Amino acid sequence: MNTAKKRIKRIAEDFYLVLILIFLYAPILTMMVLSFNNSKSRTQWGGFTLKWYGQMFESATIMDALGNTLLIAFVSALVATIIGTAASIAINNMKRVPRSIVMGITNIPMLNADIVTGISLMLAFIAFGISLGFKTILIAHITFNIPYVILSVMPKLKQTSKSTYEAAMDLGASPIYAFFKVVFPDILPGVLSGFLLAFTMSLDDFIITHFTKGAGINTLSTLIYSEVRRGIRPSMYSLSTVIFLVVLILLLITNFVPNKKKEEK
């Protein structure tokens, strides 16, 4: 009797999991299939083709948006990683109560709704007389990426031993030399994870970018939104597929590379 109940429970759990995966990924798989459809129809298969991908790469508008997206994602992730790592070190050296307060404040942007963050940043730029454009998108992305870097680096800092750093100092090493030789190698997996996570978040962002971009500049997400409003073109399926695959690969790297290094140790 117990065996039958366990079997039924397992089947129900597996069915529930499969149902969730279908709801989550069936629309994405449909879009990916349509990106290879020779017909513009969304209900009729016209044969396999790569011409929509060719049109995507031939489009100057899409390539400009792709260049803006990659540049903003890389620069914002790099700057956020530097600032976030430095902030993590400072927070880690605080006493318990101030550290808890600062970490709570740091986590607010991650819990806050993107639309609230986007509108707040837009109003701040307008209040300070900063014209909306490339630089405002970059500043906005750096701002919302920093908490994710701190979240990735802090656990690694907590695992490091201060005694090794102090021992290096006692042996005559300068603070900077001791940090890069003793502390930095230990927190490097967290720093890399923070960079990749920040890059992914920037690459995938739409709402904050939409409110801070101004006129005359587009990223891939805002370009897709503006194109879809006029009518869905098959090249948009191709572009969306490429974005999904890039984000998926980055997330896999972010999750599996640190675990692999941990197992090797």
UniProtKB/TrEMBL annotation:
Keywords: Cell membrane, Membrane, Transmembrane, Transmembrane helix, Transport
Domain (ABC transmembrane type-1): residue spans on this chain: 66-254
GO CC, any one term: plasma membrane
Origin: domain of life: Bacteria
Membrane topology: Multi-pass membrane protein
Entry keyword Plastid: no
Official protein name in the record: ABC transmembrane type-1 domain-containing protein
Source organism: Hungatella hathewayi WAL-18680
